[in-house]
Write a structure and sequence with these properties.
It is a single chain. It contains nine helices and 35 strands. By secondary structure, the chain is α+β, with helices and mostly antiparallel strands. Among the domains are: 231-321, Thrombin, subunit H, CATH 2.40.10; 334-575, Rossmann fold (3-Layer(aba) Sandwich). Strands 28-29-31-30-32-33-34-35 form an eight-stranded mixed beta sheet, with helices on both faces. A four-stranded antiparallel beta sheet has the order 4-5-6-7, with no helix packed on it. A four-stranded antiparallel beta sheet has the order 8-9-10-11, with no helix packed on it. β4 and β5 form a beta hairpin. The radius of gyration is 24 Å and the shape is globular.
Length: 576
Amino acid sequence: MTPDAGRVAFISDRTGVPEVWVQEVETADVLPEPVRIAFDHPVVEVSWSADSRWLAVKLATDGGVRSQVWVVRPDGTDARCIAGDARVHADLGPWTRSGHRVVVRFPSPAVGRATEAYLANPTTGGLTPLASGNLIAVLDLSAEERTIVMRDGPRGAEYCVVVDRIAQSHTRLTRGVGTTGNAFVRPAPGNWDVTSVAYLITDEGILRPSLVAVPIDGDHVPGEQRVLARRFDADLEFVDSDDAGSRLLLVWKVDGRSEIELFTTASGVRTPIDGLPGSVVTTPVLSRDGDSVLVAVEDVGHPKELWHLDTVTHAWTRVAAVPPLAAEEPVTPTLETFTSRDGLVLSGWLYRVPGRVGPGPAVVYLHGGPESQERPTFAPHHQALVRAGYAVFAPNVRGSGGFGRDFAHLDDVAGRPAVFDDVVAARDSLVASGVAFADRIAVTGRSYGGYLSLAALAFTPGTFAVGIDVSGISDFQSFYRETEPWIAAAAYSKYGHPRTDRRLLKSISPLRHVGAINVPLLVVHSESDTNVPVGESRRIVAALEKRGREVEFVESSRMGLAELTERYIAFLDAHL
């Protein structure tokens, strides 16, 4: 939202690719028409300047991982690139809250090189150095731009720091023994004996990500942490604040579904908000005066739409709708539990084929991350597979997000092989429950899910009848060699280090065990993917072809979801 909550900028793929749209925030029955702002690359992120005169837009260069940052007027004029191109990756950070500059970040371009953050002037394109560090990300600047809140460290071991730009000092808010989400600094409540407070989401010393406050005194010295809001059945996923720091917006993740609360900082009172028009909330924004909330809400049967919440009356109003959908009724998944070999209880979302009695063909779909989470969202890919006659089971194996700190770290480094047992257990649960025939189950996934699919075929041959790998890692040594330097550095804590954990990485790399893969395999990879480079797929395809195995390879610069789904169904129809 703009600071006055009068307009909203959002991203929609209604034309076929993600683009920016701007419209007025109205609560009338007839919604205003949004204005489209087109770019040559897919849009990833958009945000308003403090004076509402500029939008900052993050674009995925050629649809790949590397991105660039542009600024543009809300009417689509004066568009210009201020950071990044096809060779240089740039990230979008926050706008200054009282000024008119935006943070851009250039991740480490090579091993041993620092990540650099700058303040960019949208009018001139000039860049002013702001901060430098290993894996830094600027999360917030105080209103007077003296204090910066930053996150640093590898995945699962991030720490949060407050930097005083005048004193040129920095103090840690967390120690780096957990995960830190978003964080910001606001004025302290009147009954706190300090000038400001840093609010952050962290699971450091806590079983689940929770709301933590760190008081900061007049000399900009942080005090002791205070846990303000926690739940034993949920992870805190988002937090936002008004400018005064008097009201916070909290979004909790409960078994994949979202729940919203408003938090009054002076009293500590938490007010649950009922009537959420969907199951899952993303990109929540609290207005700067604290009177309005805008959220993207989606459900199994409906893609994301923008809704407005009045924080006084708690009334919900739709402010941006999607175009009409096909009349076909979506399949509502059920949350199922199953047990892995070591006794760990896991869960997943099961999409059954309508009208089917008894077992049939099925697909185990593995999400990416591995910190992502399968949730009851609008999933056209799953729905299309079910309509084609394939039950879909989307499990949350160990290492998934949404189940607390300990669960998220169960797959770290030496814990990786246990995930292979989780995948087999998910497959076995389909057979035991009568959903699928034992010899007609496929395994598939994208990115980390693609890796797990290859691993299932290589390490547990005979378990799955067919495999589909989309952009998966096949060999960790080559992955570390060819991926972006900042991605490699952040991954050490999750997968292991290519030097100190060399033997382990070899043992869990499907390419090193490719001879065991003896079922039909479809491999799909984008040539512009620099996260998991396309060489990961080319090598395993070549190794399988050399052995005379049945493998189909699709290498594409851009492939839409509809085309990918058609490829899935055609391959499954031919082999399952």
